[in-house]
Amino acid sequence: MTPPLPRVLVVGVGSIGGTVAGHLAATSPSTVADVLGLSSNAEIVAAINREGYRLQSLHGSLVAPGRAVETLAEDEPPFDFIILATQPPQVEAAARAVLPWLAEQGMMIVLQNGLCEDRIARIAGPERVGGAVVAWGASTLAPGHFEQTSEGGFNLGRMDGQDDPRLRTLATLLERVGPVDLSDNLAGARWSKLAINCAISTLGTIGGDTLGRLMPFLVVRRLALHLMTETVAVAQAEGVSLRKIAGTLDLDWLALSEAERASTIGSPTIFAKHSVLLAVGTRYRRLRSSMLAAIERGREPAVDFLNGEVVARGALHGIPTPVSAAAQQMVHRIAAGEAQSGMHSIRRLATQVGLQVGRFTGERSAPPPPA
């Protein structure tokens, strides 16, 4: 007997959630029984119900019929998968609110950057929580209109590394968006992505520009390397085996040695690491920090779930994380209106942490990639 098709709830219909929901809705009813979007934004809900999910990618566009609501009806049937795609500061409240609609054998899937699986496991139970590291970017062009700005897929699994047949079902669904890697080391993928986001998302917020325009600055790359180095040190203390990003970006190698952290002059290894960051800046040149967008909308930035996690866990292990702490504080100052995003804030951060970057504080070392 063929098992019934799964019902999917996507909580948070922003750039990532809207793109995922739209692609899943495009396959209904052949692969999913129903896809429902849940958003507190009435304008987004109205646009989806009126015009469907309008999706643009690097390869074309499509429109998928959509259904979205602001609140779940009491008689709404349970969902086999509840995909949490809110910003990290809202994810725990969102999980509690929709938990009554999670099927008995259903799973909540965490898409947030950071280490949110542990938080959601305390709400729904670890056996009902999976996670997916998102390796692509997206933006919202208008309510219900989403653009995928870079290619990539998902690293899908459970934080305890256990095999789970439910995740194999979900992997089949998510392949509509991008390739899915079912992993027994989601923790390693999460921490590697955390190291990247602690640098790229946070510095993107402080610098107030796209990655392609910021990464050519030597001071940005130097700060990024220090932020990633602190994250890698804490991950190693946690006993995490880091995974390579996209199979090639090795965080253990990218992290600075003690000698490199103190150096203000170039070396072949440091040059190679800067070259990697320049390549990342070129590939994801259109990427703009979601934290910066949240601040612009008057919302709480997710920095406590990124650099804040590194600072808190570093303190538990006795590992100093001064650059992470200063970056976290700077983002909060920008959110509070006490500072402004821009390269002046990037340089102020470097000075504040006593980063002896020497010539690295100069202007661009390379022209910005094309927009």
**What is the end-to-end distance?**
52 Å
Series of secondary-structure elements, N-terminal to C-terminal: EHEHEEEEHEHEEEEHEHHHHHHHHHH
User: Per DSSP, what share of the residues sits in E-state strands of 2 or more residues?
Assistant: 15-25%
Please compute the radius of gyration using only Cα atoms.
20 Å
Judged by helices, strands and strand pairing, the structural class is alpha/beta
Q: Helical segment tally?
A: 15
Low-confidence stretches: 359-371
List the helices and strands and how they pair.
Layout: E1 7-11, H1 15-27, E2 34-38, H2 42-51, E3 53-57, E4 60-64, E5 68-69, E6 79-84, H3 88-98, E7 102-110, H4 116-124, E8 129-134, E9 138-142, E10 145-148, E11 154-157, H5 165-174, E12 180-182, H6 186-207, H7 211-214, H8 218-237, H9 251-254, H10 258-262, H11 268-283, H12 290-296, H13 307-317, H14 322-335, H15 343-352
Parallel strand pairs: 1-2, 1-6, 2-5, 3-10, 6-7, 7-8, 11-12
Antiparallel strand pairs: 3-4, 8-11, 9-10
